[in-house]
Design goal:
Order of helices and strands: HHHHHEEEEHHHEHHHEEEHHEEEHEEHHH
Helix content: 40-55%
Number of helices: 17
Radius of gyration: 22 Å
Strand order of the largest sheet: 8-9-10-11-13-12
Largest sheet: 6 strands, antiparallel
Shape: globular
Structural class: alpha+beta
Distance between the termini: 70 Å
Number of domains: 2
Length: 464
Amino acid sequence: MRERTTGRHGLTPVERAALGKAARSAVPRSRHAEFARDPNAPTPLELLAGQDANRVPELLPIRHERMALSPLSYFRGAALPMASDLAGSPRTGFTVQTCGDAHLSNFGLFASPERRLVFDINDFDETLPGPWEWDVKRLAASLEVAGRDNGFPRKRRREIVTGAAAEYRSAMREFSRWTVLRVWYARADVETVQATFADQLGAARRKKLSQTTVKARARDHLGALEKFTERANGGPRIASDPPLIVRVEELGIRDRAAQVIEELHGVLAAYRETLEPERRLLLDRYRVVDFARKVVGVGSVGTRCWMLLLLGKDDRDPLFLQAKEAGPSVLEAYLEPSEFGNSGRRVVVGQRLMQAASDIFLGWVRVTGLDGAIRDFYLRQLRDWKGSAEIETLDPVGMLAYGRLCAWTLARAHARTGDAIAIGSYLGSGTSFDTAIGEFARAYADQNERDHAALADVVKTGAR
């Protein structure tokens, strides 16, 4: 009797591959080149204004200024407008756990629990089950936009974008041949990255990669202690750097500061319950000594984010945690709502599903904020060997290699949670999909430039 190996839907690999090929008839791969904004949809400025309504008002000018800096900085903050644009785009119906904001700056280096430096997706604020195509298109468009910001000629940009699409396609087809556990354990540690791309990078670029890994390892808790603290009352405390870092006592609530600090201790206690028992024990070896509000990112500016300083055996044994507000994913307006009632938990679960190795202090909590509103947060280490590519310094060869690495990483994340056999079969061995994605990225980058100009004009005139 023939051995029947089934996927989670009870289908054999042959049947799942057939589903992928059949999807080509319903959604030809060439159709992924299509981009047309729905004229009845809210404008990007309207969508961004809607997000502003739930953010800290005094921080909004920082968000607008950061997004107005360049088309790439605008793109980084415009996950919601792009989700709106992708809502009507062709999709095969194969669902994965999406990142929701898979642009090239949301990949980077960090430490695994085994203390190895790994490369992976590092931002999951918008994660949600959804179409694999949306993540691929956001990554591809970001490469095109970044190539334009760096002044690359059109031909080189096309090579970069189609190269990333081809890497995603070939990686997904490769993962479709692997066992489930082999896919789950796959990761891109820095030694593998260096070996894989050694033949594509000259001596200068290999040296730059080595320097990046050295810098990442230096971005640890002791480095954060030097960067973010000052001495006061015989010990370290977080140093204010308004408006980017503001201590609780300086938030205009001096008469309630003691109460707020007590509430923040309660937040930490509630977060502790979402950790595994052995990690609770580890957390219990630290004591909280200070809190401060922190501004992070581009699109996230205005959401509530706290920096927490904890100390272990002495003043040179720090642990920095970051508590970041989590709202509904931008994708939830266009897909099914999250199965989790807590948006912080949505982020944590999505991160654990997509990342090969996740922060040991990753957890979530629901609290009543300073304004009396109930809000969800997720917590993680602020710095743990963090590193990222300096996009503005990449030349075409470097960006091609980096784009391919991001695409491989994205395919691996999708293969962990989706049907790699069906998706790989749909993509096929030819270049139809790659070409279509290249055309989509160019069209979307044109639209992104117009959207950026509209925001920049509003910021310049002071209308926002």
